[in-house]
């Protein structure tokens, strides 16, 4: 579903991605790990051309993303939900208006159908009561969930999550992780999840990659990651895995 080959991007002297290759099969979930500032958000943004890479190829759903004209790109973007690192709601609109926005812009749905879809999505993230609230009235976790509902509202085939649980308490983080799993199961979505939260990572990943020095220095399954003898990986895991439950039944 997603295939990235030899992706490169620099900002001036700052080489951020330097030959990134990535393949995400249809319906599967890849988790991207890496230190802060290493280029994870840049990678996600390149996939939908919110940032234009310098060179490389990106294929999504059979389309060569970097060659698309703006109209074709907009068509493709409708198939892709993006949960941004900051919830990115419009502060001047209430929750209902925030959720209606993509539907009015990209679909021919009637007002009644729009309302039904909004309720469905709010129900999915467990926040029906937030319909008429303004973003300023919501907690960080609630904003994240509304952002989640909005990124799903066009029923995307692909979801890109940028640190979906960062800044949330462990209970809310677990809820968001559960939502990601629910989306995978219910809609068989193809997902790319950028996260520092190892509990989330190990719960949702079919495949894990570690970005370092502009490249993936590790690609493999969660088990391969845990068992790796690489010193850098071991350090990364030990600093990020302190709260990881030993009992598998406690991980979800
Ligand atoms: N639009 C931009 N213009 C110039 N430099 C940028 C731009 N966006 C990102 N960068 C730089 O690219 C590098 C990677 O940034 P990025 O946001 O991808 O990091 P990240 O891995 O997502 O970090 P974090 O975990 O803190 O979110 C940083 O050095 C950042 O300063
Ligand atoms: Mg980031």
Instruction: Briefly note the structural class of the backbone.
Output: alpha/beta
Q: Identify the bound ligands.
A: adenosine-5'-triphosphate, magnesium ion
Number of strands: 10
Order of helices and strands: EEEHEEHEHHHEHEHEEHH
The chain-level mean pLDDT equals: 91
The tally of helices reads 9
Q: What is the strand arrangement across the widest sheet? A: 6-7-8-3-9-10
- Radius of gyration from the alpha-carbon trace, in angstroms: 18 Å
* Structural shape: globular
**Helix content range:** 25-40%
Contiguous low-pLDDT stretches (5 residues minimum) are: none
Percentage beta strand? 15-25%
Largest sheet: 6 strands, mixed
**How far apart are the termini?**
26 Å
Q: How would you describe the overall organization of this protein?
A:
- 37% of the residues are buried.
- This protein has a 6-stranded mixed beta sheet with strand order 6-7-8-3-9-10. It has a 4-stranded antiparallel beta sheet with strand order 2-1-4-5, covered by helices on one side.
- Helix 4 packs across helix 5 (140-152) and helix 6 runs parallel beside helix 7.
- The model has no long low-confidence stretch (mean pLDDT 91).
- The protein has a domain at 85-155.
- The two termini are 26 Å apart.
- Strand 4 and strand 5 form a beta hairpin.
- With 252 residues, it is of the alpha/beta class.
- Helices cover 38% and strands 24% of the residues.
- It has helices at residues 40-47, 70-78, 95-106, 111-124, 140-152, 170-187, 198-204, 222-227, 231-240, and strands at 2-11, 14-24, 29-33, 55-60, 63-64, 80-83, 158-162, 190-194, 207-212, 215-220.
- The protein has 9 helices and 10 strands.
- The structure holds adenosine-5'-triphosphate and magnesium ion (MG).
- Magnesium ion binds next to helix 1.
